[in-house]
Amino acid sequence: MDGRIYVLQAASRSISVYGMEDRRCKPEEITSSDFDRPQDIAACSSRHVLYILDQSCIWQVKKNDQISVYVRMSQVSATLSITKKHLLVISSDGVRKCTDDSVISSFKPMSEFRLPVGLSKAKPWHAVEVNDGHVVAHAEAARFHRVSKLRDTQRLIDRSHVEDFTYGREVGEGEDQLSSPVYLAMEPTHGHIFVADHDNSRVVVLDRNLKRVLTITELPEGGYPTRLCYVEDTSELLIGMTNGLVVGYKFNWYVLVYL
């Protein structure tokens, strides 16, 4: 966002901020003693706001690094994603949605995002919103590790969703299997979905119908992919690793250039 890369270190109370043009310079820091074990971050370029999810609330960081509480939560959540109109807040119990209200320039109270009956016992890890629905990465012990594309049925009574496409079912390291899909990122131009396949130490690239396009396996040893961010302006996928490294892959006409 705004030509900067924001990096959240696990168990840290600060956000490191790097410049896109020169990432080797010493980073700036966004720090608050009030942060309660931050879990995830999401940037909204149109608002120029960074959102930080921790154990008890969502914080917002505006220009000049002004930090304030955005919304307090009664439920512990693990990940966060954002579109122009929604914040998706994901926990092992489900997905909740905040809807933007442009009149008061804030988000309405969270509403439940109902998963299909067949996935009601699965544990969502992350979710992103796409033009024709949502894509959710979820797992349930050894039963299945799976990414699903869900479509809203438009039923006014229960606002339920149906599963249109899936990738991966049983846990494994095979070509069409996943093991702990923990995070997603979306490339909006072609509709590609990136999946952090944590335990297999790779990133799987899917098309808009969740068919595998390619697999990124050239990741640094000693770490596992845990966070993803696609930068549309530079066609670059940033991969946050458990060993503290951030790896970049640049896409150019479907050809990967390892940075």
Q: Indicate the CATH class of the domain at 114-258.
A: Mainly Beta
Q: Roughly how much helix do the residues carry, as a percent range?
A: under 10%
Per DSSP, what share of the residues sits in E-state strands of 2 or more residues?
over 45%
- Element order, helices and strands? EEEEEEEEEEEEEEEEEEEEEEEE
DSSP helical segment count: 0
Corresponding CATH superfamily of the domain at 114-258: YVTN repeat-like/Quinoprotein amine dehydrogenase
End-to-end Cα distance, whole Å, is 20 Å
Summed over residues and divided by their number, the pLDDT gives a mean of 82
Structure description:
There is one protein chain. This protein is an all-beta fold. The chain has a domain of 145 residues: YVTN repeat-like/Quinoprotein amine dehydrogenase (Methylamine Dehydrogenase, Chain H, 7 Propeller). It is built from no helices and 24 strands. A hairpin with a 3-residue loop joins strand 5 and strand 6. The relative contact order is 0.09.
Task: Report a brief summary of the structure.
The chain has strands at residues 4-8, 14-19, 28-31, 40-44, 49-53, 57-62, 66-72, 79-82, 86-91, 94-101, 106-107, 111-113, 123-130, 133-140, 144-152, 161-167, 181-187, 192-197, 202-206, 212-216, 225-231, 236-241, 246-252, 255-258. It is mainly beta.
Write the layout of secondary structure elements.
Layout: E1 4-8, E2 14-19, E3 28-31, E4 40-44, E5 49-53, E6 57-62, E7 66-72, E8 79-82, E9 86-91, E10 94-101, E11 106-107, E12 111-113, E13 123-130, E14 133-140, E15 144-152, E16 161-167, E17 181-187, E18 192-197, E19 202-206, E20 212-216, E21 225-231, E22 236-241, E23 246-252, E24 255-258
Antiparallel strand pairs: 1-2, 2-3, 4-5, 5-6, 6-7, 8-9, 9-10, 10-11, 10-12, 13-14, 14-15, 15-16, 17-18, 18-19, 19-20, 21-22, 22-23, 23-24
